[in-house]
Design brief:
This protein is of the alpha+beta class. It folds into 2 domains: 3-10 and 128-254, no CATH class; 35-126, no CATH class. 21% of the residues lie in helices and 34% in strands. It has 6 helices and 13 strands. It has helices at residues 64-72, 85-88, 106-117, 154-162, 187-198, 235-243; strands at 3-4, 35-42, 48-53, 56-63, 79-80, 90-97, 121-136, 147-150, 173-176, 179-185, 202-204, 211-217, 245-261. Strands 1, 5, 7, 11 and 13 form a 5-stranded mixed sheet that branches. A 4-stranded antiparallel sheet has the order 2-6-4-3. The longest helix has 12 residues, at 106-117.
């Protein structure tokens, strides 16, 4: 039976966009035919975020953990059976592809490169794992002051703005280490965000449908003592007080990528 539990918020908060499973299948033959030149080696130099500059792929002082997240397009908790060194050993990549990949192809190219040079053998399976269920906190199902029904899907409005079109309304987007403010979103999107922050799947079981304006403010994750004047609560308390929601600890099916083999590359 599911039970409510306190949650220690000691994880480092990552990017706020969900990385839920994309079907990315590199071409047969690994990176052969995709790259003209590849250099990958352990690094202790300048940190360079993973980036494409046309046909050139660059990264510096990056742990393999970060590269795997980018390549497989899932959060790290969905990658399993990995050795400890993927978190600690940092790498430098300088590779030139045969052409500049489209944005939708970049993860495929990176994955093909990593699977060849780190001799990766991986498979996807569904495992029964701990998850959180996002549920109503109050017996009367009353919403908190920070959760209000909306008539708009702001994802469509923001996409129109990005395409240079005029918008019918303004949609707030404030995604920071100690706040999450979004207008016009389904609660499933909030659950995805909590999954990334808590490093455990969060499933929306509130029964609430439609779109909502969300305003959630809380103590920064790495703060042990409160040092500002706002006296913000921790994330779990903020969910209950501000949104009228809470997290139940339970178990459920989680799709994970299992690494049967991964080896350190030979320097080149």
């Amino acid at each position: 039976m599911a039970h409510r539990t306190g949650i220690a918020l000691t994880v480092v908060f990552t990017g706020m966009l969900s990385l839920s499973g994309l079907a990315l299948t590199p071409p047969q033959g690994g990176s052969a035919g995709l790259f003209e030149a590849i250099s990958i080696k352990e690094s202790s130099g300048t940190r360079i975020p993973v980036q494409w500059q046309g046909a050139r792929l660059l990264a510096g002082e990056i742990p393999l953990q970060t590269l795997l997240i980018a390549a497989y397009q899932v959060p790290f908790y969905q990658l399993t059976d990995l050795p400890d060194w993927v978190r600690t050993v940092r790498y430098e990549i300088n590779a030139v592809a045969t052409r500049a990949p489209a944005p939708s192809e970049q993860a495929v190219y990176l994955r093909a490169l990593l699977e060849e040079r780190f001799r990766i053998v991986a498979r996807v399976e569904v495992q029964d794992r701990p998850i959180y269920a996002l549920v109503m906190a109050r017996p009367d199902r009353r919403l908190g002051p920070g959760l209000r029904p909306s008539d708009f899907d702001c994802r469509e409005i923001l996409a129109a703005q990005a395409a240079g079109k005029s918008a019918s309304r303004e949609c707030r987007v404030e995604i920071l280490a100690a706040s999450y403010v979004r207008d016009g979103i389904p609660l499933a999107l909030l659950a995805d965000t909590l999954s990334t922050r808590l490093q455990r799947p969060v499933v929306d079981r509130t029964g609430l449908t439609g779109f909502f304006d969300v305003e959630l403010r809380f103590r920064p994750p790495n703060s042990v003592t409160q040092t500002d004047d706002r006296n913000e609560p921790d994330l779990v308390t903020a969910l209950e007080e501000q949104l009228g929601l809470e997290l139940e600890s339970t178990r459920g099916p989680v799709e994970v990528t299992v690494f049967d083999r991964i080896e350190r590359p030979t320097p080149n």
